[in-house]
From TrEMBL:
Binding site for glycerol: D123, D170, H250, H266
Biological processes annotated in GO: phospholipid biosynthetic process
One MF annotation (Gene Ontology) recorded for this entry: metal ion binding
Protein's recorded name: Glycerol-1-phosphate dehydrogenase [NAD(P)+]
CDD domains: G1PDH-like
Cofactor(s), by name: Zn(2+)
Keywords, sorted A to Z: Cytoplasm, Lipid biosynthesis, Lipid metabolism, Metal-binding, NAD, NADP, Oxidoreductase, Phospholipid biosynthesis, Phospholipid metabolism, Zinc
SUPFAM superfamilies given in the database record: Dehydroquinate synthase-like
Cofactor note: Binds 1 zinc ion per subunit.
Binding site for NAD(+): G96, K97, A98, L99, D100, T118, A119, V120, S121, S127
Length: 364
């Protein structure tokens, strides 16, 4: 049996990647081609202008589309514009939503997509999954992988620290997700793809290795986080699902989105979810070794720092197992309201509050 795995042909992660785009292979691809640029409306719109300055003479036509939200209506609207004057390539420019919307548009219209992430706040920067809003709820759908990803490290350096924390939270979740995948495999519920597992595990490890060095070089840390998130996306493509990077911790984040108002960034919620998932997976022994990393990285350690009340967090834990039909550590526990309360006290003690500054907004 053969199975096709889609990965990007070209990855660029460097300083001045956008001003130097004319030296990039992507520049050759768009010679005399029509390019549609999809971006957010704020800062990412300015990045789009920088890209247009570079590609203006190379492309035969440029169409700019602003995406304010990732709702189905907004996507349908953009798709109509794409169908009226079909581009040869779509450039997605943004922190999250614009990237997801570009992937959906590219998949629906069968046009290759190049992503220009302006923040690395999740593994959406290079994954076969997009999050869109349907009936006011966020839903993940399968999409084609981008043909190339271009990350300008100078842009990332000017991002609010919160975006970076979210990206790292999404990356650390590989560990708890792989634990859950293994449980599902052992319980005979799912096949294990060893290559995808190795990639997702190494993605998290290579980041932790940089972190374990005595002197942390911020620029190196950012580059490694971007590389590791891309490797995570490729692991998902190999597995054919988000399994290697999404387990019980993601179910908690999905429940916070669905049932508690989606008050924080995906990766921030996942970081909080990882602490609870690790607790379920091995009790305290698995949570405590993580805390120094959280402290070093400035990750959130208490749900209240993301704007959630205890009642909401309790609800999220209660609802999490039903968010997806996916076997995780939740299936091995019979959680009562009482045990959830006790666990919330253990995993998120009062002294873990007020350590996180939720400043800066979405760059989508
Ligand atoms: Zn995620």
């Amino acid at each position: 049996m053969t199975k096709k795995v889609h990965i990007p042909i070209k990855l660029t992660i460097e300083h001045r990647a956008i001003p130097h785009l004319f030296k990039n292979e992507v520049y050759e691809w768009i010679k005399d081609q029509k390019v549609a640029l999809v971006s957010g409306s704020g800062k990412t719109r300015q990045v789009t202008d920088q890209i247009i300055d570079v590609i203006n003479e190379q492309a035969s036509g440029i169409q700019v589309m602003t995406c304010k939200e990732n709702s189905l209506d907004a996507i349908n609207d953009l798709e109509r514009r794409v169908l009226e004057d079909p581009p040869d390539m779509i450039f997605g420019v943004g922190g999250g939503k614009a990237l997801d919307v570009s992937k959906v548009l590219g998949t629906r219209s069968n046009v290759p997509v190049v992503l220009f992430p302006t923040a690395v706040s999740s593994d959406a920067i290079c994954s076969p999954v997009a999050v869109i809003k349907m009936l006011n709820k966020s839903t993940s759908i399968g999409v084609k992988m981008p043909q190339a990803v271009v990350i300008d490290l100078d842009l990332l350096a000017s991002c609010p620290p919160r975006m970076m924390s979210a990206g790292i939270g999404d990356l650390l979740s590989n560990k708890s997700a792989l634990f859950d995948w293994n449980l599902a495999h052992r319980a005979g519920k799912e096949e294990m793809n060893t290559f995808a597992r190795l990639m997702a595990d190494n993605a998290a490890d290579s980041f932790l290795n940089v972190l374990n060095r005595e002197e942390i070089d911020q620029s190196r840390l950012m580059k490694t986080a971007a590389e590791s998130l891309i490797m995570s996306g490729i692991a998902m493509s190999i597995a054919g699902s988000s399994r290697p990077c999404s387990g019980s911790e993601h179910l908690i984040s999905h429940a916070l989105d669905y049932h508690c108002g989606a008050k924080a960034l995906h990766g921030e919620q996942v970081a909080i979810g990882v602490l609870f998932a690790q607790y379920l997976q091995g009790k305290r022994d698995h949570v405590e070794p993580l805390l120094p990393y959280y402290e070093k990285l400035g990750l959130p350690t208490h749900y209240s720092d993301l704007g959630y009340t205890r009642e909401e967090m309790h609800r999220a834990i209660r609802k999490a197992p039903s968010m997806r039909n996916r076997y995780t550590v939740f299936n091995e526990w019979d959680l009562t309201d009482e045990t959830i309360d006790k666990m919330l006290d253990d995993v998120y003690p009062d002294h873990a509050k007020n350590r996180y500054q939720q400043t800066g907004s979405s760059a989508g």
